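Need Trehalose 6-phosphate phosphatase's 3D structure for a figure. Predict it.
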Amino acid sequence: MSVAAPLADALAPFLADPSRAAILLDVDGVLAPIVRHADDAHVPEPTRAPLIKVAKGYGFVACVSGRQAAVARRIVSIGSITYVGNHGTEILRGGATEVEIDPEIAAWAERVAAFANAAWSEELDLLRVRSEDKQAIRAFHWRGAPDEAAAEGAVRALAARAEAEGFAVHWGRKVLEVRPPLRMDKGRGVEKLLTGAHMGCALYAGDDVTDLDAFRGLRELVAAGELGSALCVGVRSDETPEPLEEAADVLVDGPIGVRGLLTTLASSV
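Structure prediction for Trehalose 6-phosphate phosphatase:
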């Protein structure tokens, strides 16, 4: 795919000085195509190849995911870059083996697990809702369920119970996350990564409502003088939330569009 003129123009500061440019990317729906079963997600080799070049030539490269950081690294299969997981609460730095976890968030893991176990029902099981243990977050997926509408209805009932018991809930693409009532978002992760990093510009590419926080985080860093400029890239699909399209500076079409973006970035290093 050739990069459209508006995007090519927006990438000019990155291409001009890669050493002072940060490239931040969501994983699912951005680098890795959305799949029916989350465990099957992977980044295709034609996308990994330019990403590896970008990782070697740009000032800072990271993946920012709602998944656990170690899982995101497995999906992308590049160990030299940094991974922010669980919506900003985990950091797995390039080459490291130990995940840095926010202790305030980690303290909630047992309470979230206890709620999830108590709230699980035979109905959810029969509807093929899948529960994913992410330590201080419990995710409930219904993508690919035989009756997705019925499964979503059951998950919404679970969400109401979670809120009544004092937990925070967050909705994604056919997934509910039950979280501690604390700030947990990709913007927080982006701010941690780039504050004091002395980057001139930064790009973030995302496809879901959770990525709006990362967009805000980048723009706040510009306002604070930590960055000279920011580029928020929305990744379109047939499930693209309207707020993401409205908030993005530019749009690309799916993971193939992201591959084109990475290929353009890689051309300067």
